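Aim 2 progress update. The chain analyzed this quarter is reproduced below.
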Amino acid sequence: MHLRAGNNRLFCVSVRGKPETGPVPLIQARAESAHYDEMCEMRLTISRDRSVPRAIALSGLLLAMLVAAGGVVSAAPERAALVAEAQKIAAQVGDANGRALALTEVAVALWTTDRKQADSLLNDARQSAQMIDELVARYLCLRGIAARLAAVDPAAAKAALEADGKSAEELRYLGERTLALREIARAMAPLDPASAAGMFADAQASAEKIDANVFRAAALRELAAAAQPFRPDIAAKCLDAAATALRGAQSDPGLPLAQAELAATLSQVDAERAYQLANDIKQDDIRRSAWAQIAANLAARSPDAALAALKAIKEPLARPLALGAAAANLSPAQGTVAAVLAEQALASLGGLGTEDSERVSAWCCQALAYTDPVRAVGMAGKLTNTDLRDQTLAEIAVRAALKDPKAGLRIAQDIEDLTQREDAATRIAPLLAKVDPDAAAQVARGILARRARVSALLGVAAALAQPAGAQPGPAKPVPAKPTEPVTDRPHD
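Predicted C-alpha cells:
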C-alpha cells in the first residue's frame, strides 16, 4: 500500500504477519528523500486487537501517515535518552565538519554526567576535523569545537585555541591565515583577552599584506567586525585601513559591493561615517541594499538607532528597503514598533522593481510575525519567488513559536522546501518541549538531516533540563540582504 504525504514524498507501508494468525504484526514505514543519503525507518509493534487508525509523524516535521494502529500513549521523553539518541546519530553524520560539531555538542551535553564518554566524543570530533581537506574549513571547524567546549571547560577550550592559533600562523596564503587567526581570536577573546588581542594583531598584519585592494579591504573589514566587541581599538585601525584600501580601488568592478559591506560594518561603530560611504556608492541597487543593511544592523541594536538611520536616507527608493530591513531585525520585544515600520514599508513599495518589492514584502512578513502571524503567513504565500517564500515562512514559523510553539509548528508543516522546513523544525522543537515534550521529541526525531536532527534532539534535551518558567533564547537573526560577500565564510 502506498500513501503520499507531504511534498514530493512517498511513503510505502508494508504489513508483515497476519492479524488473524499472528499476535504481533509489524508495520514498517519508510520515507525516502532525493535530497538525503539516508532512509528513515519507524517500526511499530501493534497488538492485533487494536484497530483504531492513528496518525504517526515520521519525516521533516509531522508528515502524517495513516496506519492501522493506535492506543499507545508514550511517557515524556527523558533527557538522557534524547542525548543518547543524538550521540548515535552524530557518529553517522556524513560530512566531517558536521560530524565534528555534532559530536562536540553531544560531548558538551554529557560533560557533567559522563565525563569519560564526553572526552572520548571530543577526541573523535577533533579527529573528524583533521579529516577536512580545505585548510580554512578545518580551522573554522576547530574554532567551532573550541567555542562549544568553552561552555563547560574554558581551560581546555583555551588550550585548544592556543594550539590552533600557533598552527594557523604557519598557513602559507595570507587570506587563509588572516581568516583562521580571526576566527580563533574571536573564540579566544571571552576566555583570554590578552591572547586574543595578539591573534587579532597577527591577523591584521597578515591582512595588510594582501595585494588586491578590494580583497585586502574585505579581510580588514571582517577582522574589524570580529574584534569590535572585544578590542574596539584594533577594530578602528582595521576599518581605517579598509577605507584606505578602497580609495585605491576606484577602477575595480567589485568596488560598489566592497563599499556596501564596509558601510554596513561601519554602522556598528560610526553611523555617520557609514551614511557617507553608502551615499558614495555609484551603483543604484547596491547603494540601496547598503542602506538596508545599515538599517538592519542598527535595528538589531535599538529602534532609536534604526530610526536615526531612516531619517538620514535621501533617496526615495532606498527608504522602503531600509524600513523593511529595520522592521525585520527588531527584537521580539519590539514587535509593535516592527509592525509600524512594516506598514510604512508596505505603503511605499511604488516604484520598486519586482525583486526589491518582494524582498521588502518578505521582511515585512517577518516583522509582522510577532504580532499577526496569520496575516504574515498569508502575505508570504503570495510571494512569487519560491525560495524567498519558503525562507520567509520558516522565519515566520519560528517567530510565531516564541509565543505559541504549536502554532509555529503548524506554519512550518506547510513549507514546501525540505531544508527550510527542517531548519524551522530544529529551532521550534526546543520551544515546543516546554509545552509538549512528547511532540517536541517526535518533531526532532522526524528530521531527516542527521546534523540538524542532533541539534534538535539536544535542544529538546536542554529545554527539558531547564527549570520551570525559564524563557527560550531569541529567534535566529535575520539577514537583511542575501548578497554574495567578497571573502565571507560561515563561522561554522
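The longest strand covers residues 10-16. The first helix runs from residue 79 to 90. These observations will guide the mutagenesis experiments scheduled for the next reporting period.
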